[in-house]
Amino acid sequence: METYKGTNKLITGIVFGVITFWLFAQAMVNVVPAVQSDLGISLGTLNIAISLSSLFSGMFIVGAGGLADKIGRKKITYIGLILSIIGSFLLVITQGALLLIIGRIIQGISAACIMPATIALMKEYFEGAERQRALSFWSIGSWGGSGVCSFAGGAIATYMGWRWIFIFSIIFALLGMLLIKDTPESKAESKGAFKFDVTGLVILIITMLALNLFITRGADWGWTSTLTLVCLAASIIGVIVFVKVEKNNAIALIDFSLFKNKPYAGATYSNFLLNAVAGTLVVANTYVQVGRGFTAFQSGMLSLGYLVAVLAMIRVGEKILQKAGAKSPMIWGTIITTIGVALMGLTFLPGIAYTVVVFIGFALFGLGLGIYATPSTDTSVSNAPSDKVGAAAGVYKMASSLGGAFGVAISAAVYGAITAVSSVEVAATAGIIVNVVFGIVALLSIIVMVPKNAGKEHQEVLSQKAS
Question: Is the pLDDT of residue 466 over 60?
Answer without folding.
Answer: no
